[in-house]
Amino acid sequence: MKAGAKLTIQGTVQGVFYRQFAKENADKLKLKGFVRNLTNGNVEVIVEGEKDNIEKLKGILLKGPQHSQIRNINKEEKKWTGDFKEFKILRI
Description:
- 28% of the residues are buried.
- The protein has one domain (2-90): Alpha-Beta Plaits, CATH 3.30.70.
- The radius of gyration is 12 Å and the shape is globular.
- It starts with a strand and ends with a strand.
- It has a five-stranded mixed sheet with strand order 4-1-3-2-5, covered by helices on one side.
- It is of the alpha+beta class.
- 26% of the residues lie in helices and 42% in strands.
- It has two helices and five strands, in the order βαββαββ.
């Protein structure tokens, strides 16, 4: 089933290649959307695709890449729009 979500990742997630890690795993799961750093030190992921794959990505992101320390992932359900053609890393 198609779904969407906004994931906000809190912890040591900037400067540890977290966005690249998110993109590689989203691509493997055939998810679309984007990942970006937020000014408050968190990372935001907007993602669309199969609901099961979004849940898998959330689990992977909870572990994070080497040197990251994840305190929390907040998930907000979103409606699937089909607006995204790929998964991108956005830069501030």
